Amino acid sequence: MNKFQKKNFILFVIGRIVSLLGSGIQMVAMPLFILDLTGSGTKMGLFAMISMIPALLMAPFAGVLGDRFNRRNIMVIMDYTRGVLILFLAYLTFTDNITLSILFGMQVIISLFDSLFGAATSAMIPDLVPEKDLMKAVSTTESASSAAMIVGPVLGGVIYGLLGMKWVFLLNGISFILSGFSEMFIKYNKTSKLESKINAKIIFDDIKDSIKFIFKNDVLRNLMIMAIFLNFLFNPMFVVLFPYTFREVIGFSPQQYGLLETMWTLGIMIGNILLGLFFSNSENKKLMKNGIYGMVGMNLLLSLFLIPQIRNNFTIWKIFLIVGTIIIIMGLTNAFVNTPISVFFQRIIPNEKRSKIFSVIGVLFQAATPIGMALMGLLVDRYEVHILFIILAILILLDVLIFSKKLDNIDFNPSLENE
């Protein structure tokens, strides 16, 4: 990278770090806040579902916009807008006017803007760095993002436990404003060859073109099938089952739970550092297989440890250390799955199609997740949590065993750029 590219890339990463720091604070505090308000896993699952559905519905349209308009400008506008909305939530909380209905309604709006922001940022990295530096750039971005998401949840648990939700909203809102300010200094010229005009026909034609591109390729299609099932199982476990188990059942404090949330991200950061330093030239397929098997193995170990007859032999801090270690290793192996896939996608998808195809991929990857979150919210109020962990671990293992046979026949060489 030359000096100009380095400056742009650093500003891009700083913007993400600042924004994610605030998001990490709120990510931990929000489920704890809802649990403290209601004590209901069902309502927590409903909130998680509401957080995701608007983003999924908006994503294909956001991708079309990301390919036809300046991606840097979209990032800046979305950060400022989200910052103002979250500061408004802070005001309502400071004045004791916050309600669950307001939280749910505002989350719908914020999720829509999250989708627009994500479509722009996910497609920008190849425009900021040379292709030879792409793996390092992606792993650096992910490592920096992980660092922010390590600090954020710790602060979230501490701030929520000591000062309450109003300060969580305030700090998150400020972080989005600062992120938008940083991104304004990125020198970015729109490189898309597509026209900037937009209408319903263009949007739906672009979405149809994206779906056709994805399902025409064996690698994308097979990854899609595996990801749909894995996300249906994994995401509800982390978003709904984890906070309910460790806060309500085991009795972690907000600070302990905040620290536990950082373990996953710490593992992802370590994994991305290892990828950038030692494995940037390794075969994607081998990295991905090792990562998947590592995640599944650690998840099975976690589910067995949470059986009451086993976990009750340990003090709460020993439980924290054991579970935290398992989650760090799971996060590390997750990086060996997600980062190679991300680099592969960045390489094979043409620039003028990148935002819309990434958005459609994201929708398909997450399509079943809201259903899983709502279902998990209902189940945690009715069944022992260790039983749910064991059932999920078995289902995830079966999914990976079925997919591993197909993975051996997948060609990860990026040969689709000219198709």
UniProtKB/TrEMBL annotation:
CDD domains: MFS_MefA_like (cd06173). This is MFS transporter. Its main location: membrane. InterPro entries: MFS, MFS_dom, MFS_trans_sf, Tet-R_TetA/multi-R_MdtG-like. It is found in: Cell membrane. The lineage of its organism: Bacteria, Thermotogati, Thermotogota, Thermotogae, Petrotogales. Pfam families: MFS_1. The keyword Cell inner membrane does not apply. Keywords: Cell membrane, Membrane, Transmembrane, Transmembrane helix, Transport. The chain crosses the membrane at residues 9-34, 46-65, 169-186, 223-242, 262-280, 292-310, 316-337, 357-379, 385-403. Residues 8-411 form the Major facilitator superfamily (MFS) profile domain. It comes from the Bacteria. It comes from Marinitoga aeolica. It is a multi-pass membrane protein.
